[in-house]
Amino acid sequence: MELKEQAISLLKQLIEIPSLSREEDKTADLIESRLKSHGVDTKRLQNNIWAKNKHFDASKPTLLLNSHHDTVKPNAGYTKDPFKAIVEDGKLYGLGSNDAGGCLVSLLATFLHFYEEELPYNIILLASAEEEISGKNGVALALLELGEIDFAIVGEPTLMQMAVAEKGLMVLDCSVKGKAGHAARNEGENAIYKALPIIDWFRTYRFEQESEWLGPIKMSVTQVNSGTQHNVVPDLCQFVVDVRTTDVMSNQEVLEFIQQSVDCEVVARSTRLNPSSIPADHPIVKAGESLGMTKYGSPTLSDQALMPFPSLKLGPGDSARSHTADEYIYLKEIEEGIELYIELITKFMNVTASLPVGRQGCGT
Fold first, then answer.
1. Which of 148, 187, 201, 204 is 20 to 30 A from 221 in CA distance terms?
2. pLDDT digit string (tens) for 136-166?
3. Phi then psi for 265, rounded to 5 degrees?
4. Which residues in 311-337 are b (16+ Cβ under 10 Å) and which e?
């Protein structure tokens, strides 16, 4: 009970410290201080805080527990102070309470529960920054310092059901070139007309491979820009495509296929936000199923996109409340989340304890 009370107290404090992406230094200070108050040695890189279990052994495989402490900006619809922790009817209101403060404090409590135990797996807790903007100084930076990770539990609000796959994201800038001319005469080559069948290809094309959990790769043209004035045939049409990738193809593979399929210039702003998944027969997934957890594919992006190893998205709270006005999480969800995290990892550890020490037993 003490861990649960401490977790809720910590979340109330986190809510009342503004921690917009790239401005998380004060919440990083608080998380670092809280871990140190329990005798835990911490490491810090910019606004990322991490800690290893007391009996960390480099010869053992490693489980990463990760969630983020940055938030989006509060939207204009708030009727309550977004930076004040308010408890009403069993709900804790405040910016970041649901996304992903409840997950973070629950994972921190779970880490402390296992901290001094001798385990078949190492455990690393990582409280990361810049998740909401997929920033380069968030989890991607911290992972460079953590060593080899075998798999991760990523704390995001999933109603404590298992998101075994997550969509990736690419934003494409496409350019179609024509030839300028006077609109009153039969001159030039209209770049807009050349672009229309290409735009329609993005609208109608369906990739042959479809994900069991995420369905088809989705492409949406979301912006179009062309022309300088009404009487000039445009020589350039530019448009933007939002691509939501799935675990059947990497972003780079999807990009190369698109570039080979359309007659225009296609440039990806980034290919780093990849789709992610964990095998359905992974021991942590099997442990979750034995506890009655269901599996699903998540359409929303998280720090999983930057993890080059299997990861399971799981946490208290509801994704539907994220980024909404008067964001909240039920106190009961945090309490039950801590219980389920501990039960899940305990069950997983009991199974893997009988396997050979080393990464051959990690199920990846």
1. 187
2. 999 999 999 999 999 999 999 999 999 999 9
3. -80, 130
4. bbbbbbbbbebbbeebbbbbbebbbeb
3-state secondary structure the chain: CHHHHHHHHHHHHHHCCCCECCCCHHHHHHHHHHHHHCCCCEEEECCEEEEECCCCCCCCCEEEEEEECCECCCCCCCCCCCCCCEEECCEEECCCHHHHHHHHHHHHHHHHHHCCCCCCCEEEEEEECCHHHCCCCCHHHHHHHHCCCCEEEECCCECCCEEEEECEEEEEEEEEECECEECCCCCCECHHHHHHHHHHHHHHCCCCCCECCCECCEEEEEEEEECCCCCEECCEEEEEEEEEECCCCCHHHHHHHHHHHCCCEEEECCCCCCCEECCCCCHHHHHHHHCCCCEEEECCCCHHHHCCCCEEECCCCEHHHCCCCCCEEEHHHHHHHHHHHHHHHHHHHHHHCCCCCCHHHCCC
Percentage, residues of the chain above pLDDT 90: 94
Q: What is the 3-state secondary structure (H, E, C) of 90-119?
A: CEEECCCHHHHHHHHHHHHHHHHHHCCCCC
Of 65, 34, 47, which is closest to residue 313 (Cα–Cα)? 65
How many whole angstroms separate alpha carbon 364 and alpha carbon 355? 14
Confirm if 122 and 62 have CB atoms less than 8 A apart. Answer: yes
Task: Please name the residues in contact with 185: beta carbons below 8 A apart, sequence gap of 6 or more.
Answer: none
Res 361 pLDDT > 80? no
Alpha-carbon gap, residue 21 to 134, rounded angstroms: 9
Answering whether pTM is above 0.70, one says yes
- 326 to 8, 31, 85, 104, 120: CA distances (angstroms): 18, 24, 11, 19, 42
Report the alpha-carbon angle 26-32-35, nearest 5. Answer: 145
Asked if 276 and 247 count as a contact pair (C-beta separation under 8 A), the reply is yes
Residue 165 to residue 327: CA distance in whole angstroms: 25
